[in-house]
Amino acid sequence: MVERTANPAHGDYSITLPLKLARELHRRPAQIAAELAGRLSLPAGFADVEIAPPGFINLRLRPSWLQAQVEPIAGAGAGWGRSDLGHELPVQVEFVSSNPTGPLLFSHARGAVVGDVIARLLEATGFAVQREYYVNDTGNQVRLFGESIQAAIRGQPAPEGGYQGAYVEEMARAAAAKLGKNATVEALAEFGIVANLESIRRDLDRLRIAHHAWFSERSLYQGWDQDTMAKLRSLGLVVERDGAVWFVTGGDKDEVLYKRTGEPTYFAADIFYHRDKLEKRGYQRVVDVWGADHQGQVNRLKQALEVLGIDPARLTVILVQLVSVRRGTEIVRMSRRSGVGITLEEMLDEVGSDAVRYFFLLRSSDAHMEFDVDLAKQQSNENPVFYAQYAHARLSNVRKFGAAVQAAPAFERLDSEWELDLLRAIVRWPDVVREAAESLEPHRLAFYANELAARIHVFYKNVRVVVDDQPVSAARLRLSEAARVTLANALDLMGVAAPERM
RNA sequence: GCCCCCUUAGCUCAGUGGACCAGAGCAUCCGCCUUCUAAGCGGAGGGUCAGAGGUUCGAAUCCUCUAGGGGGCGCCA
Fold first, then answer.
1. Which of A117, A108, A115 is CA-nearest to residue A345?
2. Are A92 and A317 in contact (CB under 8 A)?
3. CA atoms within a 13 Å half-sphere pointing along the CA-CB vector of A409
4. Chain A, 412-451: which CBs lie within 7 Å of strand B?
5. Helix/strand/coil for A274
6. Is the CB atom of residue A392 positioned under 7 angstroms from any atom of strand B?
7. In sequence order, what E strands does A253-350 have?
8. Please, how many CA atoms are within 13 Å of residue A257, restricted to the half-sphere of its CB?
9. Distance between CA atoms of residues A349 and A345, nearest Å
10. Where is pLDDT greater, at A31 or A237?
11. Which of A91, A196, A220, A383 could cross-link to A100 by cystine, CB 3.0-4.6 Å?
12. What is chain A's mean pLDDT, rounded?
């Protein structure tokens, strides 16, 4: 209803309600606008309203109000922009959850960054967030992984559909040294999983990601599986057919819960796990960040939750589209099935975590993206991550340069277009955080950071901060500090460093 | 065949119902460092917003259809 204007000539905010009411009331929007404008009681920060055809009510922030924000923001530090909208509601964000049968691949990194920043956004808006990694530590793939290590120890080729590569060989050597050459498949799998989880944790740590909990799939099979199955059976939604156990959807296609081998399917595990989160552990909201190749699972899982009496709206699944990697003119698409294995570790070595994070955050999750390795690792102005970081470094330098200024700040003299434009960008920050958190769209942070950095660079170029006039200097220094704090908070929410110098 | 995402400037992408020329970065061309960091700033050129129809006072944005690209639809994970 109240929105930011795209065009500065139309003020800072506009109200479009009159246009929306016009249809229902069968009256001219301009009349409604005039009437409404007369009755508006505006916060003190706004100048008088303007009515623009065909029926907009435009609002403009007063320079005096903007100037009065400088000192509080400059002094607010890390709290600036945070809010308590969530009222400490328990929310879980589950992300990464890559199989512990191998190292983290670069294709996992996008979901890792998106999930982490969603968690940061929810924390910043007052939710009690738990970050969880779901560990598939049992089942077919785990056994296959154990068999693959065993084969490597014995110098045999990997089993059909098994795992291979240098990391398996390495693991085989380490396992043989520790467990002996005749260790069981189970013991080898366990050894490999522990080692992989360590390496995954190490990679995530380099990406500045830390989970609170690593949830073991195995733990679901200590009764909770049977409890859930009993409930489904009592609802009459389970049948046995062809030696397998099926979930009756009522729709066109039933789904297998237990294979003929007696093993649960991933679908069954998903049901057990999500019932555990939403019912047993009582998270009011759960956000899962999945790769787009899991899209087909969303509806059937929600359907199953619903019949179990759990409101499926409490679960939000963010599907992150796949990433392709560009090196020079070569483009490699990274999907799970293509088996392209650029590891996250290699990419972190090559381009660093700031660039990886920033690049992923420059795209909305539902857009396919191309990760340009050459661009990401360039230490030059072509690399967008430096643009924002450089703005922060410049302001940090200004702060040092002006440390000796003592006078009382003359905030009312921050009246140039560059200073006021910068202020308008700064005061938007809490709205940006709230909107990004509500929409679960981390990329809004990156776009804001770019925009704020642009205002900072223009300000820096056109307005000399440290000048002979001490009261003006003092005011500009505080404005610089307010901008620096805001940019630092934005970068912090993105998990990107805000360097003092570059 | 069915489901999901995408199609906007040469390239990579924002914008997803409102207001004069549809935005940014890169790339191309032209300017700006005796002054707090030029990893910066300013300017120029460049677009039938894939196509068609519809809803609306108004559509890049919503609805339908078509075309193209990607992903999924398995007792795989």
1. A108
2. no
3. 21
4. 441, 443-444, 447, 450
5. helix
6. no
7. 255-258, 285-291, 315-320, 323-327, 330-334
8. 22
9. 6
10. A237
11. A196
12. 89
Q: Is A138 in contact with A218 (CB distance < 8 Å)?
A: yes
CATH of domain A2-61: 3.30.1360.70
pLDDT above 60 (res A335): no
Neighbours of A20 (CB within 10 A): 14
| DSSP-derived pairing of the beta strands A285-291 and A255-258 | unpaired
CATH superfamily of A65-85+383-494: Isoleucyl-tRNA Synthetase; Domain 1 (1.10.730.10)
> Residues 166-225, chain A: which have Cβ under 7 A from strand B?
none
Chain A residues 89-108 within 7 Å (CB) of strand B: 99
Going from N- to C-terminal start, the domains of chain A cover 2-61, 65-85+383-494
Q: Among A178, A255, A186, which residue's Cα sits nearest to residue A218? A: A186
Task: Give distance CA A240 / C1' B59 (Å).
Answer: 52
ipTM surpassing 0.90: yes
Rounded Cα gap, residues A80 and A306, in angstroms: 39
**Which pair of structure tokens corresponds to residue A236?**
């009459």
- The answer, yes or no, to whether residue A1 has pLDDT greater than 80, is no
Residue A340 Cβ under 7 A from any strand B atom: no
Exposure string of A443-456, with b = 16+ CB inside 10 Å and e = fewer, is: bbbbebbbebbbbb
Q: Mean pLDDT, to the nearest integer, of A153-166?
A: 88
pLDDT tens for each residue of A62-79: 889 999 999 999 999 999
Q: Which nucleotides of B are covered by protein (CB under 7 A)?
A: 3-7, 12-15, 18-20, 24-27, 35-42, 56-58, 69-77
Task: Provide the CA A502 to C1' B36 distance, Å, integer.
Answer: 15
A94, two tokens: 């589950």
The integer distance in angstroms from the CA atom of A442 to the C1' atom of B5 is: 18
Q: Does residue A259 contact residue A329 with C-beta atoms inside 8 Å?
A: no
For chain A, state the CA radius of gyration.
Answer: 28
Which pLDDT belongs to residue A57? 77
- Given a cut of 80, whether residue A332 has pLDDT beyond it is no
Q: CB of A395 within 8 A of CB of A34?
A: no
Beta bridge partners of A332: A325
Residue–nucleotide distance: A332 CA to B53 C1' (Å): 38
Q: What is the pLDDT of residues A72-129, one digit of tens each?
A: 999 999 999 999 999 999 999 999 999 999 999 888 899 999 999 999 999 999 999 9
Residues A344 and A209: their CA atoms lie apart, in Å, by: 13
